[in-house]
Backbone:
């Protein structure tokens, strides 16, 4: 196990202000011993990518409920790639139609968590994923 | 510091004391029942759990009897329907006289798509319209703005100008239908567009009936669709009150909303308390503007959530009416009974819907709707079964409307007024919920009011705490959500409504044409006049109306006011 705390950026992209989920995840990951940075609302993919670099995070968690995922996610993934950040684990949580999931995973998004996921499942996923990576 | 808090305490109007919590006084017969009947049963088979609580975590006793209502007076605390304290409802005949308005929230794609859904719903027997706008519209951006990319027509209908509004209400006579519009920061602008369409149709503004949501305080607290800082935002709200009193006496210029506070994860008591304290804040700002309390308060309306915990919700609606009456009479010395009666719309809880086993949502929604009806709602939206996934399909929206029609016409619950009145449990819970809400109201009074409380993130933090606590209860299975953390099955995906990706292109093309066809000089002139007025103290509604009539876009008008008012950034708390 790495001695360094896992660093996570929780981001809320797009115009939507429904932040209940993002805030719960931020707090649950913090309670699980991770270092969590919450960006606040209305972040563009550019803002999220630079925050990820600046904060040197291992994980980016995006919360999207508005149906804008097919616009936001490809933009962010392209930016991360261009900035050489393709090793960051990108997770998406929210309302994502199942039909959109395969393409999102293909673009490099590590996992998509749908409504009803327990915080424990997300914590375990991150821990496992980063343990394998080290 | 001490000086400041002194001043703040003085501003606060004296509050009604909460109901004193007298201890239970069980009768000898109840004590004997405990001893001889209950104890042997518990010794043989203990109850399912040590403590029972509502979904909000409020403790619930095994049995309620007259011992729980030692100071309760049927005359004082219950009264009669249509009379103070309105516990039993605001009308003497309630749903026997007139059923609640069945008002299904709808909006998606471009204006013509939503216009078709509106006309379909009216044909199915729906009795009022309710408009959902997309996120760019809610945030004051035109459909072709860079930040609108990917969001046009997704969560509601895209409205960027009066031209779109004309299409939205095409062939719908605004004089004969009541319309609710869920819009907040840009509410004054959207309302001006609505009034312009009504004028064009030849409808008399004095006869227009409907509701503008226009509740900016709950945006800072919960839903977060704000543009400007609190001060100018509140000014815009009070401008609509003033304008409404003069020009549209049957239109509710605001729907003070607990719905979103609850969706953000609050408890029932927090929903009630923060909503009513928001209401008091609007009343105080209106009075500070120089309006007589009884001139504008009768036009204020409310909007509550209907969550899963059946009795807690009913108690919440009953307590809401009691608190509002007390506050109007005792804090503001209102003389007009129309100011005392709290009128409210209800929507079943979107956050209670599960993506898993979505047909279960029909059942949840029916039970929640029943609570709203038994609680005395004036209008109701029932959610569709597929709304944990997307905006509803026509099939799902129809089923949701049918749910209300079944409650209204088949169950018999509308045959009598407040059928639960006098129940030991319901009356006790009503008292407790009222008491809990007054505690919060007093705390916020002591902070100097809701705007200050918001700036200190107080309601935001309380809600975040409650929301996290509930999530942990679900994760630990202390609270069961059927199909999510228990009774889980594997199922196939649901057929959902896909928003046509061409909506954004259609909107962009329409905006290009609009800008080419209108008089740009006139638009610029009117936007500049609005800017100048915004710097002063005048009521901005007439200026906004002028810009709308010249086909200035929503984004341009919002931008003009951004130039003067600036924008709001919240302190992100987790």
Residues:
């Amino acid at each position: 196990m790495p001695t360094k705390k896992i660093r996570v950026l929780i981001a809320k992209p797009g115009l939507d202000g429904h932040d209940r989920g993002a805030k719960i995840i931020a707090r649950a990951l913090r309670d699980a011993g991770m270092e969590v940075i919450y960006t606040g609302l209305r972040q563009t993919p550019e803002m999220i990518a630079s925050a990820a670099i600046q904060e040197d995070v291992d994980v980016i968690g995006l919360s999207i409920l508005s149906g804008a995922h097919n616009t936001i996610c490809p933009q962010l993934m392209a930016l991360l790639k261009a900035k050489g950040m393709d090793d960051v684990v990108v997770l998406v949580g929210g309302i994502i139609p199942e039909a959109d999931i395969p393409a999102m995973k293909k673009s490099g998004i590590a996992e998509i968590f749908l409504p009803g996921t327990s915080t424990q499942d997300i914590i375990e996923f991150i821990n496992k994923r980063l343990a394998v990576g080290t | 510091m001490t000086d400041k808090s002194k001043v703040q305490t003085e501003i606060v109007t004296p509050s009604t004391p909460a109901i004193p919590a007298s201890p239970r006084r069980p009768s000898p017969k109840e004590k004997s029942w405990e001893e001889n009947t209950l104890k042997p049963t518990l010794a043989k088979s203990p109850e399912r759990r040590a403590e029972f609580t509502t979904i909000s975590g409020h403790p619930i006793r095994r049995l309620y009897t007259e011992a729980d209502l030692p100071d309760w007076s049927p005359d004082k605390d219950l009264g009669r329907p249509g009379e103070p304290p309105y516990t039993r409802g605001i009308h003497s005949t309630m749903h026997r006289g007139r059923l609640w308005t069945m008002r299904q929230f709808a909006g998606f794609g471009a204006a013509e798509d939503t216009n078709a859904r509106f006309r379909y719903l009216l044909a199915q027997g729906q009795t009022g319209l309710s408009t959902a706008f997309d996120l760019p519209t809610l945030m004051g951006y035109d459909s072709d703005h860079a930040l609108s990319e990917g969001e046009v027509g997704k969560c509601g209908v895209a409205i960027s100008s009066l031209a779109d509004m004309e299409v939205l209400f095409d062939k719908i006579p605004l004089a004969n239908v009541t319309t609710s519009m869920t819009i907040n920061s840009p509410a004054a602008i959207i309302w001006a567009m609505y009034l312009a369409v009504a004028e064009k149709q030849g409808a008399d503004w004095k006869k227009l009936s409907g509701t503008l949501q226009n509740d900016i305080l709950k945006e800072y607290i919960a839903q977060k669709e704000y543009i400007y800082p609190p001060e100018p935002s509140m000014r815009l709200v009070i401008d609509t009150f003033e304008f409404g009193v003069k020009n549209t006496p049957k239109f509710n210029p605001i729907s003070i909303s607990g719905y979103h506070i609850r969706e953000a994860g609050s408890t029932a008591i927090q929903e009630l308390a923060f909503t009513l304290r928001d209401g008091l804040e609007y009343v105080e700002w209106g009075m500070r503007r120089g309006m007589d309390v009884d001139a504008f308060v009768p036009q204020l309306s409310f909007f509550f959530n209907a969550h899963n915990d059946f009795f807690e919700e009913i108690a919440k609606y009953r307590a809401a009416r009691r608190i509002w009456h007390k506050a109007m009479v005792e804090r503001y010395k209102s003389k007009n009974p129309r100011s005392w009666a709290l009128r409210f719309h209800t929507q079943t809880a979107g956050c209670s819907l599960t993506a898993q086993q979505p047909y279960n949502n029909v059942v949840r929604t029916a039970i929640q709707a029943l609570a709203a009806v038994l609680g005395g709602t004036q209008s109701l939206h029932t959610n569709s079964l597929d709304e944990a996934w997307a905006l509803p399909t026509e099939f799902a929206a129809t089923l949701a409307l049918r749910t209300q029609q079944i409650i209204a016409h088949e169950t018999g619950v509308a045959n009598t007024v407040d059928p639960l009145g006098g129940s030991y449990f319901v009356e006790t819970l009503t008292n407790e919920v009222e008491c809990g809400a007054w505690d919060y109201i007093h705390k916020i009074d002591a902070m100097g009011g809701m705007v200050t409380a918001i700036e200190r993130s107080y309601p935001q933090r309380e809600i975040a705490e409650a929301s996290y606590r509930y999530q942990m209860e679900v994760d630990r299975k202390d609270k069961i959500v059927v199909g999510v953390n228990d009774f889980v099955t594997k199922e196939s995906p649901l057929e959902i409504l896909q928003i046509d990706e061409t909506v954004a292109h259609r909107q962009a093309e329409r905006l290009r044409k609009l800008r080419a066809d209108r008089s740009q000089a006139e638009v610029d002139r009117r936007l500049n006049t609005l800017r100048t007025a915004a710097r002063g103290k005048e009521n901005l509604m007439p200026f906004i109306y002028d810009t709308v009539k010249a086909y200035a876009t929503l984004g341009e008008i919002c931008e003009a006011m951004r130039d003067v008012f600036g924008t709001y950034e919240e302190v992100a708390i987790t």
User: Anything to note?
Assistant: The first helix of chain B runs from residue 2 to 11. Chain B touches chain A through 46 residues (CB under 8 Å).
